[in-house]
Amino acid sequence: MAVDQVGNPMNATIRSSVISESGFDRLNEGQTQQKVGKQCTELEYNVFSQDSFAQVELYAEGPCINLGISRQLINIHFLPCTCPIGLKPIPSDTDCKCDCDPVLQRRYQIANCSEENGTIKLESNTNIWIEFINTTNGTGYVVSNCTFDYCVEKPVDISLSSPDKQCAYNRSGVLCGECEPGLSLVLATSRCEQCSDLYPLLLIPFALAGIFLVALILILNITIATGKIHGLIFYANMIAANRAIFLPNLNNFITVFVSWVNLDLGIETCFYNGMNSQAKVLLQLVFPAYLFFLTFLIIILSKYFDSFAKLFSNRNPVAALGTLVLLSYSKLLRFIIAALQYRVLYYPPGTTKIVDNFSKSSYIVWLYDGNVQYFTPDHIPRFVAAAIVLIAGGLFTVLLFFGQWFPHCSKVMVWTKNTKYNGFMDAYHAPFTPKHRSLLGGTTPLRSDCS
Q: Does residue 353 share a domain with residue 265?
């Protein structure tokens, strides 16, 4: 409102201009000269300037212009146009609006960014996980294919300010590799749930299940010595490898039985609070080791106690042990693959996880838990265990493959004359006729000099 020299309201024209350091500034059209009446009038100004600070000068037309009495200065500090993570400002002299970051749009199938809630849409034909890195040395995106089924199904709207929203089954962290705080990983699934204090009591039925499985092998005599187990192993592995097709329902007897044949527990459970992927991989060895222990115990008791041996009549516990070794092959192979798999992530240069000085910084993580860097103290125990299993399994495979030759090499392989060795190897060779035991083919016996 304009007033005269004695304070009475009056009609007037308010002239305005912008003062800045560079001088490259302006007001919106029609705002440099605005009329006011004898009542309070709201005036709006849109100020455009190349500087971060400017002043708007206002004065009313009249005799006191040059005296400074009618002048009013308004200080303006401009804030930069900021957008949610994953969005960038649209070049404009007049508006602050955001759209998808061109880096994400150009390299990945991302569209439909929302400025209001800062989300970006991942299309249905993508299976990527995105993390935004922001340090004093540099910023950028880390993008990788999501591991297994750890990420939510696409299409989905995600916010990079909360990257864990990309994760399914209450998972979190790099590549959704770990559980949210306070939750535990559930065996036989990718889910993370609250683990009850009663779950350790499940060790009792699992222990009884191991005894039942060993007893079933002995009583029904489904060992490698009879040849009945080979087809069962083959089909059990085929069903287990295509479980989603053949056994969509994970809670039935057939599923548990197929898991047992593959030396899995077959039941979704967690054993203690805070169980993670690292423990899950190592626990794969517990059930096979327990079954081996039971069979070794039966063999030792049968050796020293005749009454115990008579309980099994003509059953051969050594053949049962050989059967468990054969059954454990796929289980041990899965353990080796799980322990040694890795994923290479590429981080922007200058970030805290930098490894080299190239344009992209490589960072190798353990595939099953991206929060564990590959071949570090957290990963080395699994790596060493996998290496031991791999070496021992390879040597045993060679022993099985050439086992029928070794007894004929008496001059070199004296240890193959041991009755324990022959008893164990006969369990593998028993189902086959002498003709098919010869790796050279035919029925001609191998010469004692191995030539």
A: yes
